[in-house]
Amino acid sequence: SVMQVSATDADDDVNTYNAAIAYTILSQDPELPHKNMFTVNRDTGVISVLTSGLDRESYPTYTLVVQAADLQGEGLSTTAKAVITVLDINDNAPIFNPTMYVGQVPENEANAYITTLKVTDNDAPHTPAWEAVYTIVNDPEQQFVITTDPMTNDGILKTAKGLDFEAKQQYILYVTVVNVDPFEGSLAPSTATVTVEVIDVNEAPIFVPPEKVVEVPEDFGVGLEITSYTAREPDTFMEQKITYRIWRDTANWLEINPETGVISTRAEMDREDTEHVKNSTYTALIIATDDGSPIATGTGTLVLILSDVNDNAPIPEPRSMQFCQRNPQPHVINIIDPDLPPNTSPFTAELTHGASVNWTIEYNDPGQESLILKPKKPLGFGEYKINLKLMDNQNKDQVTTLDVLVCDCEGAVHNCMKSGYVEAGLQVPAILGILGGILALLILVLLLLLFLRRRTVVKEPLLPPDDDTRDNVYYYDEEGGGEEDQ
User: Fold this and answer.
1) Which regions span the lipid bilayer (predicted)?
2) pTM score
């Protein structure tokens, strides 16, 4: 059934036929494709399709004039209009118009527009029976993608990934189109042919490999060849020349032959250069440039793994410290060596140049990577120079001078004081005493000059006695005339 019409009658419908209503169709507009496309049930008013031939695309609506009459159709009557809208079904396939297309796209560009495919569909616009679904039949590598414009129903063809002109210059694609809704009946999908031409562009040189790792000793030397790092030209249809240069070489250790790509050292390398070397690795960036139009540039990464050599002797830290004269607390000295095992611990320590007379050292840990320094006996106030010789596991050694201050205090040092001095400098009374001594000396010199001018006989110069010398505040723990290494 399509619809139902209904009429009412106020007469008695129980004992008479005065309210017995019968329905009939008086007219149909349009009378196509047949005059009697619909029928109505006389008793119920239900309207049904009588014959086939409804076509929304040709006759989207029908207007029926329906009569209702009492006395079972023989009495009084009235009429009404019934408007029937024919609903769409997917009985029209989308058709390509035209069926042949040509598009161009530069190589290496993903999501690049190629062309627009157009279709016509007689079904109701913007319905599932009208909306187009495009399929590329022969694209196994999925290099292309086609989407539907929701407003126009056109197919927009683009690249899904960059195409390589050197590998293939032309593609011929076959595209079919259907609707979101399945076809009604035996409808065949329409097919279009798209020719895609790939345009050659100048591509950047490609380093092989993109990252090259080379292991060299840190004392490799200067002016020696490390490796050859070159790039290939992907544009096989073009004759181009590649030149090389170093883009990033933060320590300025390297140089490259611009023609051959041979990389050599221009300065001494140092694995312990923590500013430029991380985890024994030094990284440089190399650039290859062709002479195409426009010029294209590729980048490669050179990774140098610097193997360690024993070029650093161990050193103590800290190198200056303070002790109290009474009940002094020992100091821990760490041994630092930037080299790698086996060029580091266990270390050997020795006091030299007579330092062992007043001082003693002992290892602070089983790995012999730190020491404990303490005085052997009570020492006088002042500054001491202690020569400490440290040697690594491969017998690389160095003598370092420690600056030690013995202070007027007990136990741990809190405020270091020594006779006539403080850690920051001379005390005020000492400074005043020195200034007073200088002034007295000047007065003495003036008096002497005046005295000499008044006498004709030269007298013995007035000099301080030999034993009137000041104590020196420095103590050098040395015996004999040795040579001190720094």
Assistant:
1) 430-452
2) 0.54
Q: How far apart are CA 110 and CA 373, in angstroms?
A: 70
Q: What CATH number corresponds to the domain at position 178?
A: 2.60.40.60
Q: CA-CA distance, 321 to 384, in Å (whole number)?
A: 10
Task: Please calculate the CA angle 64-36-73 and round it to the nearest 5 degrees.
Answer: 65
| Boundaries of domain holding 181 | 95-199
User: Using CB atoms within 10 A of its CB, is residue 457 exposed (0-12), middle (13-18) or buried (19+)?
Assistant: exposed
- Asked if residue 477 is part of any domain, the answer here is no
Strands 243-248 and 144-148: unpaired
Rounded distance, CA 364 to CA 376, Å?
A: 17
Indicate the number of domains in the chain: 4
Neighbouring CB atoms inside 10 A of 418's CB total 19
Condensed to tens digits (0 to 9), the pLDDT of residues 460-483 reads 443 344 444 333 444 455 444 334
429, containing H or E segment: helix 428-454
Q: Are residues 303 and 320 in the same domain?
A: no
Summarised one tens digit per residue, pLDDT across range 308-327 is 888 888 999 999 999 999 99
